[in-house]
């Protein structure tokens, strides 16, 4: 029996619902670090998030303003396309839906783009960021998000592969049309459902 089968067996033995682990994934207790380029650092007050695109009124907010908004604490599984999954991660943040509603989302905005530091982007259908569990997060496991994991603020879209959750989020954009983000331009799937194993174009 290979590593993946043994891991899947252990997941079942641990009492987890086996279907929580998507096909082709293994469960890890660690929190792997994965990104291209450098980890940005911000002076206090330097970070900001721009809400823009097909909205009535674009706005920019800083960390203090984000933390002052109604928040959600969510426990969720995450799945990376490089095949690790982690269960029961705990995040705190603000619903993407609420930020877009504050800006006045226009009805023709059917797509979404998350913009991160250094030009990293991830595209999503608008319906996928309207979900209860689509968050702009600033806490992991009860503390500020470590810079290597995207702090001060990252996007969290837990139902899709984790590349759809940009670290060091700097902008959220409402759009009329879809366009591939960073990894999507490099062959990753436009949608990226881990339970359908939508890893690459053509999957
Ligand atoms: N800005 C930025 N966000 C990113 C990435 C990146 O390279 N740059 N990598 C993505 C990928 S592929 C994964 S698996 C997760 C990894 O998050 P972690 O390092 O906190 O585990 O971040 C995603 N968000
Ligand atoms: Mo990933």
Given as residue ranges, the uncertain stretches (5+ residues, pLDDT < 50) are none
Number of distinct beta strands: 11
Globular, elongated, flat, extended or rod-shaped: what is the shape?
A: globular
Molecules bound to protein? the ligand Nc1nc2c(c(=O)[nH]1)N[C@H]1C(S)=C(S)[C@@H](COP(=O)(O)O)O[C@H]1N2, molybdenum atom
Secondary-structure element string? HEEEHEEHEEHEEEEH
CATH class: Alpha Beta
Structural class: alpha+beta
Task: Tell me the number of helical segments per DSSP (H or I, 4 or more residues long).
Answer: 5
On the 0 to 100 scale, the average pLDDT is 97
Roughly how much helix do the residues carry, as a percent range?
A: 10-25%
Distance between the termini: 26 Å
CATH H level, superfamily name? Oxidoreductase, molybdopterin-binding domain
At CATH level 2, the architecture is Alpha-Beta Complex
At CATH level 3, the topology is Sulfite Oxidase, Chain A, domain 2
Number of domains: 1
Measured by DSSP, the beta-strand proportion falls in 25-35%
**Biggest sheet overview:** 6 strands, mixed
Instruction: Using the CA coordinates, give the radius of gyration.
Output: 17 Å
Would you give an account of this structure?
This protein has 203 residues and is an alpha+beta fold. It has a single domain, classed as Alpha-Beta Complex (Sulfite Oxidase, Chain A, domain 2), CATH 3.90.420.10. It has five helices and eleven strands. The strands form two sheets. Strands 1, 4, 5, 8, 9 and 10 form a six-stranded mixed β-sheet that branches. It has a five-stranded mixed β-sheet with strand order 3-2-11-6-7. A hairpin with a 2-residue loop joins strand 8 and strand 9. The longest helix has 11 residues. It is globular, with a radius of gyration of 17 Å. The two termini are 26 Å apart. Bound molecules: the ligand Nc1nc2c(c(=O)[nH]1)N[C@H]1C(S)=C(S)[C@@H](COP(=O)(O)O)O[C@H]1N2 and molybdenum atom (MO).
